[in-house]
Amino acid sequence: MQFHKDKIKEKILIIDFGSQVTKLIARRIRDLGVYSEIITPNELKKLKRYNDIKGLILSGGPSTVTTKKFQSVPKEIFEKKIPIMGICYGLQLIAKIFGGQIKSSNKRREFGRALLFRKKSSILIKNFLDSKKSVWMSHEDAVIKLPKNFKVIASTKDSKFAIIENTKKKIYGVQFHPEVTHTDNGKQLFANFLFSICNIKYKWSVTSQKKIIIKQIRNIVKKDRVICALSGGVDSSVVALLVNKAIRRNLICIMVDTGLMRKNEFKHTYHIFKKRYNLNVKLINSSKFFLRKLKNVSNPEKKRKIIGNLFIKVFEKESKKHKNVKFLAQGTLYPDIIESKSSTGSKTSKIKSHHNVGGLPKKMNLKLVEPLKDFFKDEVRILGKSLGLVKSINYKHPFPGPGLAIRIVGNITAERVKILQEADNIFINELIKKNLYNKIWQAYAALLPIKTVGVMGDIRTYENICLLRAVTSEDGMTADYFNLPKNFLDSISNKIINNVKGINRVVYDITSKPPSTIELE
What is the pLDDT of residues 436-458, one digit of tens each? Predict the structure, then answer.
């Protein structure tokens, strides 16, 4: 289900060459009130109308222009007088097309933060780069000879041509990634491109899409019935409220208790939807079924796929109890899709399957309704607020579809689930109590697949390691660990060990994303 495009007067096209963070470009542009759309290089070749397109952005990607065959764009687009900006691979592609030289070399590779130095003034870097700035690099190839009529605007120690431009043709290129939060004030660079170079005036907003999405759901579903997979998290809750507004009488919300949820959370949210929103909600206890199927399964991909298949089986079994049920609505978001597979057909590397994307069976009796699959988490929260979703759900930390199954590294048992539920409950409640919860994007406790020796009351123990993780993020695509106060870490470690039998050691994860993911599995 895509955004409605009939009323879009001005838009930016993002050509996806397979970068894991391409969607972040779209997100930054949306944040600035401009509609953006991601398409593949092949889709660009088939494009006939350019009337509404005010600018083109060429994304990064895993390809290299140093080989005979590489992903490219039609040369004609550079003659249409539409402003173009290349990012990372996009810059290298522009340089290649216009006769520059690109070389792959270990001496020129840059990964992580780099210091960017200004060489010349440019409208692209106004209020973004005064003299020097920290930016995020991720490349092995580099431009070693600039194309004719292009100027160098900024450099790093290892990339002489970190920002280039051809003002006559309105073509720009940046070697770094302004879309990731690791680049200081990268949004300003996009703002300069949109408003000073592309001269965009039209404003777009997330809330303006609400009525359009509701209308789309109504048009797709018509008089058929919909089962909504409702977990109680913000994504599925927003989907339930959207579908409810579209086809109230024909919606059946199903909450499947897999036995892998947080302590007491399921029944609490069930009552909220039943009483406050008067939704048609049915609670199904399938905990024994899920735990039995996950017995002795330690591989995280297998866990996700098993859970995805089991969910569908439960929903399809339930659908047979009702007439005219043809659709399954679920809260799939774009980060779920991009980490499971490339939604645009580009050569994006798969990171992991999400139970509601890569974990779904190939053959399903129910058709999917996924009204949020082009949205980021923060955009979903904006929709949730406009729909009147209670704060306790709308601002709840993200919780994975497979639940605690991917926070128990290794084999899953009922005993380990109970131990983790208790530890996680203490951690989350303490964060809330100390007014830290709302400063954090996502926090959780996990169990590692090893036991260690401890001493409690002069008695030797041999119990589990509990890992705590808390991160800050804007979108879930990149993240930094949250710097929890030392006194809080001291207190929480003591509280978990003293109150949860089965844990004798607590560790805190201080890894960012990348290189790690937010979840352990």
Answer: 999 999 999 999 999 999 887 77
Question: In angstroms, what is the C-alpha Rg of the chain?
Answer: 25
Mean pLDDT of 138-153: 88
Average pLDDT for 371-398: 91
What are the residue numbers of the active site?
88, 177, 179
DSSP-assigned beta bridge partners for residue 171: 84, 166
Helix (H, G, I), strand (E, B) or coil at 51: coil
The whole-number average pLDDT for the span 404-423 is: 96
Structure token pair of residue 325: 């049920």
Cα dihedral angle (511, 512, 517, 520), rounded to 10 degrees? 20
- The span from the CA of 339 to the CA of 348, in Å, is 9
Whole-number pLDDT of residue 173:
95
Give the Cα separation of 386 and 397 in Å (integer): 19
How far, in Å, CA of 472 to CA of 438, rounded?
10
3-class DSSP assignment, residue 464 = strand
The DSSP letter of residue 261 is S
Residue 98 to residue 25: CA distance in whole angstroms: 24
- Beta partners for residue 135, in sequence order: 114
Domains of the chain, earliest start first = 11-197 (3.40.50.880), 207-394 (3.40.50.620), 407-508 (3.30.300.10)
Mean pLDDT, all residues of the chain: 87
Q: What is the dihedral of CA 174, 178, 179, 181, to 10 degrees?
A: 160
How does pLDDT run across 86-140, given as a tens digit for each residue? 999 999 999 999 999 888 866 667 777 888 899 999 999 999 988 888 898 887 7
Tokens 């004719």, residue? 148
